[in-house]
Specification:
single chain, about 260 residues, mainly alpha
Length: about 260
């Protein structure tokens, strides 16, 4: 392996302040050398310095130009060193993996599992805690619970919901929902479970969303003996019905 130049280890990256200080030293040295030449020609030190500055030109413009140039060169040097270091590290890692393939496989597998787990956790946290809910005014949505009863249930009864709706002065809209569990969908290809939820007629209005096709639930769906109505989620519509818009009004067989 070829040895790296020793200056790679001794030379520290220059900061912007260090670059400006070095430029000031260089410009000061240049002015002093010019003034020394004029003193040798017979001028006084004060006159010599004034003439040196005058003949040098615009010090501020020169300083700005040199600073920008040095900053660009320093950035190029850092990038070059970074690429060289990365290439050397990759070569060293490759040789180490070839010498101990079993250990390398364990390390790579551990890294892959760790990265995958972190990605999954971040996705969940982003979806649940960071990304806003896809509803109207999501920051104003609240979920209400009842005091758990003897069997541990914390669901509000229909009477409690009606009382809240009638007496509350701060609740703009109120709706009820519950996890209904699974229903079995049967078609010509067999049967499959559907995960479902039971909601009331105000559910979609409270959330501020509307079905892409067809209508939401209505009061006419409530009386006993009225036809049962189901609203499909978008993924389910795409998966089981191919995104067919003619699905509206179609009869499906659920739990027989």
């Amino acid at each position: 392996m070829p040895a790296r130049p020793i200056r790679r280890f001794l030379r520290l990256p220059r900061s912007a302040a260090r670059i400006r200080a070095d430029l000031d030293d260089e410009l000061r040295f240049d002015i002093e050398m010019r003034a020394r030449d004029f003193v040798a020609q017979g001028l006084s030190p004060l006159d010599a310095r004034e003439r040196a500055v005058r003949e040098f030109g615009d010090l501020d413009a020169t300083r700005r130009y040199c600073e920008a140039t040095d900053m660009e060169i320093e950035s190029d040097i850092r990038r070059s060193h970074l690429v060289e270091d990365l290439q050397a590290d990759l070569r060293l890692a490759w040789r180490a993996m070839r010498r101990t393939p079993a250990f390398a496989a364990v390390v790579l597998t551990t890294l892959a599992l760790g990265v995958g787990a972190n990605t999954a956790v971040f996705s969940v946290v982003h979806r649940v805690l960071i990304e806003p809910l896809p509803y109207r005014a999501p920051e104003q949505l609240y979920r209400l619970y009842a005091q758990p009863n003897a069997d541990g249930s914390d669901m509000l009864s229909a009477g409690e919901l009606m009382t809240l709706a009638a007496q509350s002065k701060s609740i703009v809209g109120l709706t009820a929902f519950g996890n209904y569990g699974g229903l079995t969908y049967t078609n010509d290809n067999g049967a499959e479970p559907w995960q479902t939820a039971s909601v009331d007629t105000a559910f979609f209005n409270v959330l501020g969303v509307h079905p892409m096709l067809g209508r939401g639930f209505a009061g006419a769906d409530l009386p006993r003996g009225a036809p049962h109505v189901v609203i499909l989620s978008y993924p389910l519509w795409q998966r089981d019905f191919g995104g067919d818009s003619r699905v509206v009004g179609r009869t499906v067989l659920l739990n027989g």
